[in-house]
Structure formats: structure tokens, C-alpha cells
């Protein structure tokens, strides 16, 4: 598997320090040449917007945490783009576990593949309870825990693990990107859901769903691997995605969790 992973790795990223300042710049160049992946990210943006409209009420700030190089702001300009590291594509840097935000000021937080990088999830949930308006919430897109995802994530990334049986919500990470447990959303919101509901009675898990665009995400290679098929085949791959919809819970790579602060 290591030999296959090394072969599929994007040549431009082989010397990348995932915790280094050049990560965003290099990933931005990768995204520029991958139309297929850009479409996947835009669909994630639309999922955020759709679910916020369905589950969150009232006015308030809309903030994306860990916006990176494909911020939701590109699709919805009213959303503030934030990350731990400031860049010209972002509005500000923010620590998701100690936010410089007023109490009850936020309608919606969005996070794509960032929650499992938070070293202290309890501090994040405490901040959600403080900063969210009643009826507002957070929507997280995270690595899924189905059979195919669990097999792939355990073997694909050198800098991150996937341990569904890890005993703690806190993962001993060695940097912003290194050492994360990609199974964290499963641990907190599925395996330990009763514990989450007990510890944070003001926060409700109101919706979960799996993302169906996993064939394009996988074939595109994401931000770190080679694209396997040309963009000209996107319509064909989308058709295959529709055919595979009934088995998405076995094959999906991402899922969405919607958390709402009680009105």
C-alpha cells in the first residue's frame, strides 16, 4: 500500500511540510488545475447553505472555520472565511477553541475537514454554546466511517490516523495538521453521542447525512494525490454517482453533521 500511495502522490507535494506555511500556496496551485475537485468543493458549499437554511433560524454572523484554499465565501460572499493561519484569501485568523467573538453573535459555523484537527474538542463545544445564537448552529463535513472510508483512511495518509476505537476525544497531535484522528466525528457524534448530549445539553445533533460525490473526490485525487481520469469524463462520473446512490453508506468518504443550539 505504501508503494501505491507514493506512486499516486502529487509530485509537486512530495517535499511538503503539512504544518509549514507553504501548504496553502501549494494546495491552491493544485486546486487551480483540478476542475473536478473544485466542483466537489462548490457542492460542499451548497450543502452547507442548504442545511443552514433548513435548520438554523434568525440573523447573525456566518463563519467558516478552517476555510483554507476553497472558502465558502467564494460561493456565498456573506460568509466570513477564517483559519488559524492568516492569508490574503481569508478575512481573519481565529482559534476555534477560544474564539474572539461576542456571546450569542453567530448564526452558523461551517467546517470542512477541520473538526478532526481540533486538539481539544470540548473547548470547541463550549465555545459553540457561548457564541451561537439560540436556534443557530454548526455544520461539519468530516471523514466518514463507512467500510470503504475506514479501509482507505487508515492507509492513505502518513500524517493522520483513523482509529474508531481511540479512547479519548483528544488526539496527541504534533502540529496543526499532523497527528489528527480522522475518525473523531464518528467517535463524538456516533459512538459517544449520549456522552456528547449529556455534556452539552444546549447542543442538539439534528441531522446527519453522507455525501454522494465521493467518486469525483476520489478520482480527482483530492489536494494531495494525482487525478486518475480527465475532467472531460465529469458527466459520466456524475451519472455513475447516481447509480451508486443506494450504496453510498458503504462507499462514501465524507459525511455531514448538523449541530444546533437549542432555541
Key structural traits:
7-stranded mixed β-sheet, 263 residues, 7 strands, alpha/beta, single chain, globular
Structure, described:
By secondary structure, this protein is an alpha/beta fold. Helix content is 36%, strand content 17%. The protein has a 7-stranded mixed beta sheet, sandwiched between helices. Strand 4 (106-112), helix 4 (121-131) and strand 5 (132-143) form a beta-alpha-beta unit. The radius of gyration is 18 Å and the shape is globular. The chain starts with a helix and ends with a strand. The model has no long low-confidence stretch (mean pLDDT 89).
Q: Which runs of at least 5 residues are low in confidence (pLDDT < 50)?
A: none
Strand content: 15-25%
Question: Which structural category do the helix and sheet elements fall into?
Answer: alpha/beta
- For the CA atoms, what is the radius of gyration? 18 Å
User: Biggest sheet, open or closed, and with what strands and sense?
Assistant: 7 strands, mixed
Question: Please, what is the average pLDDT?
Answer: 89
Oligomeric assembly: single chain
Helical amount: 25-40%
Number of helical elements: 10
**Termini Cα gap:** 49 Å
Q: Order of SSEs, N→C?
A: HHHEEEEHEHHHEHHHE
Shape: globular
Secondary structure tally: strands = 7
Major beta sheet, strand line-up: 3-2-1-4-5-7-6
Amino acid at each position: 500500500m505504501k508503494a501505491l500511495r507514493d506512486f499516486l502522490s502529487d509530485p509537486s507535494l512530495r517535499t511538503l511540510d503539512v504544518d509549514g506555511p507553504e501548504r496553502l500556496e501549494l494546495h491552491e496551485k493544485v486546486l487551480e488545475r483540478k476542475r473536478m475537485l473544485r466542483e466537489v468543493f462548490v457542492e460542499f458549499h451548497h450543502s452547507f447553505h442548504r442545511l443552514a437554511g433548513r435548520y438554523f433560524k434568525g440573523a447573525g454572523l456566518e463563519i467558516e472555520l478552517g476555510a483554507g484554499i476553497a472558502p465558502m465565501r467564494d460561493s456565498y460572499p456573506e460568509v466570513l472565511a477564517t483559519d488559524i493561519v492568516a492569508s490574503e484569501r481569508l478575512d481573519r485568523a481565529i482559534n476555534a477553541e477560544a474564539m474572539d467573538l461576542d456571546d450569542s453573535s453567530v448564526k452558523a459555523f461551517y467546517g470542512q475537514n477541520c473538526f478532526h484537527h481540533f486538539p481539544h474538542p470540548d473547548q470547541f463545544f463550549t465555545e459553540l454554546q457561548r457564541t451561537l445564537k439560540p436556534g443557530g448552529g454548526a455544520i461539519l463535513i468530516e471523514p466518514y466511517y463507512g467500510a470503504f472510508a475506514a479501509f482507505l483512511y487508515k492507509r492513505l495518509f502518513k500524517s493522520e490516523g483513523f482509529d474508531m476505537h481511540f479512547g479519548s476525544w483528544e488526539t496527541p497531535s504534533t502540529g496543526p495538521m499532523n497527528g489528527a484522528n480522522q475518525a473523531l466525528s464518528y467517535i463524538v457524534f456516533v459512538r459517544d453521542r449520549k456522552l456528547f448530549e449529556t455534556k452539552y445539553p444546549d447542543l442538539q445533533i439534528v441531522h446527519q447525512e453522507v455525501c454522494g460525490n465521493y467518486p469525483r473526490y476520489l478520482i480527482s485525487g483530492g489536494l494531495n494525490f494525482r487525478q486518475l481520469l480527465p475532467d472531460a469524463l465529469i458527466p459520466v462520473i456524475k451519472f455513475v454517482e447516481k447509480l451508486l446512490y443506494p450504496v453510498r453508506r458503504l462507499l462514501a468518504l465524507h459525511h455531514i453533521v448538523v449541530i444546533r443550539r437549542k432555541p
